[in-house]
Sequence to fold (1440 residues):
Amino acid sequence: MGVEQENGESEKILPPIEQELADELDAKVKKYLRGEGANLEVLKDKKLRGQLSVREELYGISAKAAAKTEKWLMPSEGGYLETEGLEKTWRIKQEAIGREVDISSSRKQYDIVLPDLGPYTLDFTPSGRYVAVAGRKGHLAVVDMKDMKLIREIQVRETTRDIAFLHNELFFAAAQKKYTYIYNRDGVELHCLKEHGAVSRLQFLRNHFLLASINKYGQLHYQDITTGQMVANFRTGFGRTDVMQVNPFNGVIALGHSGGTVSMWKPTTAAPLVKMLCHPGPITAMAFHPNGHLMATSGKERKIKIWDVRKFEVIQTISGHAKTLDFSQKGLLAAASGSFVQILGDFSGSQTYSRYINHSMVKGYQIGKVLFRPYEDVLGIGHSMGWSSILIPGSGEPNFDTWLANPFETPKQRQEKEIRSLLDKLPPETIMLDPSRIGTVRPPKSREKPTKQEVEAKIEGAIDAAKNVEFKKKTKGRNKPSKRVKKRKEVIEKAKRPFFDQQMEDNPTKKKQKISQVNELPTSLQRFARKKATA
Amino acid sequence: MVDKKRKTRDDSKNSKHKTLTFKRSKGDRGKSTQKKRGGPRLPNALRKELDRVNPKNQFNSGEEDEDISSDEGNDFYEYEEGVPEEESKKNRRYDPVDNYEYELPDQFQDENVQSDDDSEYNADENNNGGLDFKRRGADHVGSDREEDDEEGHVRMLQDITGLPREAIEGKKNRRDVVVSEPYPESEYNPTRDVLDGNGRITLEDLLEGLEGKPGYSQLRKRTHQMQRKFKPLQAPLPKEVQDRLERKAAYEKSKKDITKWEPLVKRNREAPTIIFDKDIDLGFSTIGAIASEFEPRTEFEKQMASLVYDKKVMDAYKEDGARLLELNKISVEDYRDRQNHIAKMRSLLFRHEMKMKRVKNIKSKTYHRLLKKDKKKAAFREVQMDPEAAKELAMKQEYKRAEERLTLRHKNSSRWAKRILERGLNVQDEGTRAALAEQLHQHSLLTRKMNSMKDNSSSDESTDEEDDEDLAGSDEAAASKLLTKAKEKTVKVLEEDDEQPSSGVLSLPFMVRGLKKRKEAAAEEAKIYLEEYESSLKQLEDTSGVDKPKPGAISGRRVFGVPRKQTVEPSRVKLDNSSENSGSDSELDANKNIHDGLYNTNNSQDIKVKSVSLDDNAVSPRDSELKSLQNLDDIVAESGPKTTYDVAIFVSDTWKKQMGTQNDEDRSIDKSPKVTEQVTQNQDLEELGEGSGSDSEGEMVDGMLSASPNSSYKLPSQAELIREAFAGDDVEEEFTKDKEEILNEENPEPEKLISVPGWGEWTHVQKKKGLPSWMVKEHESAKRKREAALKRRKDAHLKNVIISEKLDKKAEKLLTKTLPYPFTSKEVFEQSTRMPMGPEFNPATAVGALIRPEVVKKTGVIIKPIKFEDVDPYEKSQDRKNNEPKKKHKTNRSRVRTKPVVAKS
Fold:
């Protein structure tokens, strides 16, 4: 009875604060419900309806409990720059921010100047505690960002184009001049991945334990680092590129090409899932929003476009040139070109990005890479004179989930997490554009091909039937055993024929293609024919 | 006399009505009597003679004699026809016609009509006044005649005995004269009046005695009411129907009864989790715990317990155990006694062993024969004495019978027997024939149906064994029983004979007539026999005393109908026996024929012979009867094997025939399936062809051609820069081209229409018309199809996007092929799987409920059957509205309960 009263109260006008709280809670509950429940009224099956309603009830309880505990589990809220009057956020300098924040935060503003070993690129661990930096000329270093301690620094003495952490800070891969190498934290070379070739960009798929690379021949490689198996090796056919980004939501890899197209790949199909023309000119940079819905691309024609990946439609076009792009955990977009960094933010909630913070480096510094540090309001910038880090208020996720990433991880925890993540490793086929489709009902195929075994069984059955056919008894001369045998053979052949015919019909296209190709050029000139990039 | 008569008529409630229907009724009666041949018709002189010989028959004898006497009365009645005529017309209300023609049938007895009479009369009176007087009159005829009968009878008695009328007419003046019945009154021994048929005791009769007493009028009123409501009882429904109705009613009841469980069962079904006996502490069931619970139950156990828990012993055990030794002490005498006893037993055992050895070595045949006999006797005695043993034996025999019937082992099915039969029986020597016959005998013995086996089966026909048993106990009761049985059997046979052959020589009219005559003669003989039996029975009863009521001695039509069989049956057997004795085995077939043909003639002769013999032994009828019956039984027993013999041969012949037919059938069966198989094969082929045809609408699937390469590999140098600078020139165009290519690959464009020379043209005339229409149509339809397919693509509306439509086979396995069972809609299923279950995604408070199994039960807890408890059927709906805290409270409460419980959360 008390319940109903409560319900009645909620309908009545609550004091404003309580109302607000209730609304907040409702919003949170909705989030934890992960979508609407099915309409159970439609169901005719009473038993199922009962079961599902019980389930839904349980979900509701769970979501409510989660929503209620959220304020304890996620105590801090993200900050942001707030201005008064005519002041603009992008006018505020880093020095001004540094003056306002606490000491530990102000320590995160720094420039590390390493002028000799050329433009630097960098990569953070998922927890944001460690950073790996790689200088173009072979300078590799792993730094503990918590206490700014250099863990290991090595000089590989050859061109290093990219660096990427593997599943934890113990291992990292470096794309060097000819091959990709895997080092451990102590700088010991563990593997030389020759198959990848001269890789220009490296990406690591954390949930699938796949190391993806694009080399200078435009080949996309997927290698499983737990087994060492090369999962996939595709020729993209779009030429050389150094724009590659993983969609963190579904693990699909997007490549930006010089033709202005972006292609999306997964390791189980040789053809790109999607190919879209984003810019009329070559694509210079690309980034994905952590929720996987947004993609930002920039082209040589000085445009930055923000796309809705679900609909493959442009949301916003921003003029400006970007050599590198990155989304922060909270959805801020950093774009850098030359020595100028611009942070765009979506504050209206309508997915329209506007200027948030501007930052210009020292003149002459060429920024090669911008990367937000997870769980910190920090943007790492790799440039030609070393790397720097600046404060971007409201960029990082303030509350970390120790299940997911723990910046204060102990070695023990790290070990356990490693085991756990290995157990939870996803197979490569789970990479797809819409991973929520997993476990749903397969759309009906128009016509299912019979399997090979079925076909064979059918053929055998037909042959058996043909063998058992009784012949008429013919007149004297025509009933010879030899003739009978001959006839029997004929019957069997006849029975087999339709199946072979069908097999021929099933794959005629390949032959036709070959013929057409042959027809294009005389044999003597065929060696000069340009090979088409087919799978 | 006339006055008297009038008086009696007035006394009897049923007034006399003479109507036109007399004639008809007479005809009917005549028919019925014709069918039921009464006793043998003796000439009057003889009858008189008989009466003189034993006049007391009429008074002292029981029920049967009454009939006969009434019969006699009929004879007298004929002379006095004129007298009642006047009386009947005293009222002059009805036409005075029929009485002249009226003639009593030679034998009258119809109780049923009489019994119906009263009730119907009353009912009719109420229902339809005087309209059906005629019918009523017809109904009353019986009583009328009866009265006339009695009148005659009385007169006759008066003449014979010379006694005053009042003395003889006790029956009429029921009120005045008290006639002492020789039997105690009971339902088994109805009063004479009832048995006479006339004086059915009606309710009125009973009420008369009460007239004038207080409450009489009330009683009468009630009886009147009852009679008014009276309706003829329906015959009871057949047992199956009765049972069905009962079951139906029971079903309805139990259905209603069972609905009370519904809410309880519903609750349990709807509960996500059922917790069984959560708080029961199983504890450890150790051997000691189990042993401590032991309680002595049987005598032996109690004795043991008394010894073990003897106070002395227990005390000794508790103290230090030293006394235990003392208690263990045995005196020397005891020990010696025990030893002696053991020695004695051993020597006895040894001697017995030696004896058995000796006995085992005996080779004498006579000894073994005697031994066998003894054993048999013992077994028989045991069977007789002990119902359990009898039952067991019966079971054994039943089993053997079933086995025999299944295997037919003794039915000449062995190779040896077959061979002999093949060669012909006549060729064989005596020994083999005897052996064969013996086998068949064995079979017949084994397969004979045993009636006495089942305890509850009350067989109407008493078997020969029973008779034997009856004979064994040779007291007078048994004798009388025998007699009644004999009587019954004769009557039965008499009845059975009635069936007339409907075809063949015997159905010819003169044969039928002859048969009828013979039958009638036989029936008369049988009647005499019956009388004999009855007389002897009466004698027996007189001697043995009146106390014992004889259930078998019930007279009346029913008894008369049942016990006719006997006399002829034994005679038939006798006939068989004689023929078998006279003829050899080869004559048997002939004998069978004779048996059919001559049966009727022989029948009467035999009976005659027998009757003569019986007459001879008339002085001591009982003994002779017994003897003859015994003989008959013996004969019956002996006749077993022989009679079955020819039957068996016949059976074997048919068996052969059957084999032949079976073979034929087999052949035919063999043929037919082949044909069908061929047909099916053809069908299969056709189906295959069709399948292949449908499959051959091939699908153009192949690797997708990627976009045309616009980049030839070059060093990133000046040239590249230039290329980059001009890259944007035709990017869009290239992309659209790419897209088209891919689309074409997946949905190929129909071939261009080309006029093939020679196709669709005959001369130049048709050239003007252009391409044939069917070609154009086909082309267009293909085009339309392609467009539709293109429209269906996801990227149909996105100009600059190509979305691959290819299926990823590896990813297919992550999707379900079909909807899992209870789900019928895809949406609901997909919605139901949207929430993760693990502890990583749910608060710890909710995870437990989410992943709790359907049944929670400790190992070792016995799940008891559901017990009824009151459940509010609307509880659930309220629950749904309830919010969390209340529910939690509920779970707690339910957990506290110890019974099988539905835990909700």
